[in-house]
Amino acid sequence: MLSTDAEILKNAEAWRREGRGVAVATVVETWGSAPRPVGSHLVIDGDTNFLGSVSGGCVEGAVITEALDVIADGKPRMLEFGVADETAWQVGLSCGGRIKIYVERVD
Amino acid sequence: MRLSLLSDLNAERAARRAAILVTDIASGEQRLVREAEIAGDPLADELRDRLRQGRSGLVEQEGRQLFLTVQAPPVRLAVIGAVHISQALAPMARAVDFDVTIVDPRTAFATPERFPDAPVLAEWPDTVLPEMGLDRYTALVALTHDPKIDDPALAAALRSECFYVGALGSRKTHERRVQRLTESGFTEADLARIHAPIGLDIGAVSPAEIAVSILAEIVATLRKERRRSA
């Protein structure tokens, strides 16, 4: 099912109330052409279920991995992704933009 | 983020009230500012500005980086006329996250069977629209072709802050509509707010295609500040 902004945060609340570990990732800054605007959310639970998006699918995998650490230790993190570089191991954005993403746990 | 804060944020959205979540990026400290509390907040000017533009973003305050998550109420679409175009429009509008309500006093048209995706009110627009409270996050489309039903709805929309008002009908039909509404006291500037003929010109033929053109025009109006200039 397609998830809208309203449903993403409603689900984050519902998941937490069920007792699941939940993290919310938010796009806080973008440079150049970025696929999702500032304020977009991705919510992740401890079993890597996720809703919403912070990019066009380019960096979600990496954000989910980091979110699991945030759920584990409760420390918020700031992630930054730049242009995809095929020779580096890092994931990135093929559109040439850069984005900053804040990931926090729901307590 | 505390669960209680997330819960408050969701409650404000459900009640169609704007709210802004302020997050100190370095410490993770957060607070929620409801629309009614903005005036008393240390960041009042910035918050008001952000809310007007509907734009989340980073700000600096006394050397601290704060992220403002701006949550405007969901866009609402009042559809006047439980007609064939409305049946196509309702699920499309739901898919783009609009709150859709169908209004048509004709009980043969206004049935839940015809509209499984949206609430249907079998009432006259002038009875229900004041209760709905047409705000600046509301779009209204008049689709009945019947002046008895469309005109009072358009009048209510023009007296409100609705960000989009559209009316179905040919140029000729619209000329007569303008004449009627002028006689009931609306000015040229008021009437210029009505998008008529309704919808973007994409050569739409079927009810579903007309629904696409209407929805596209509503989105184009909502997002006009982001559009590339022609």
From TrEMBL, chain A:
Superkingdom per UniProt: Bacteria
A Pfam family of this chain: XdhC_CoxI
XdhC- CoxI domain mapped to chain residues: 15-82
Listed name of the protein: XdhC family protein
Lineage per the UniProt record: Bacteria, Pseudomonadati, Pseudomonadota, Alphaproteobacteria, Hyphomicrobiales
TrEMBL record, chain B:
Chain ranges of the XdhC Rossmann domain: 77-218
Gene3D superfamilies recorded: NAD(P)-binding Rossmann-like Domain (3.40.50.720)
InterPro entries in alphabetical order: MoCofactor_Util/Proc, XdhC_Rossmann_dom
Full protein name: XdhC family protein
High-level lineage: Bacteria, Pseudomonadati, Pseudomonadota, Alphaproteobacteria, Hyphomicrobiales
Pfam family, any one: XdhC_C
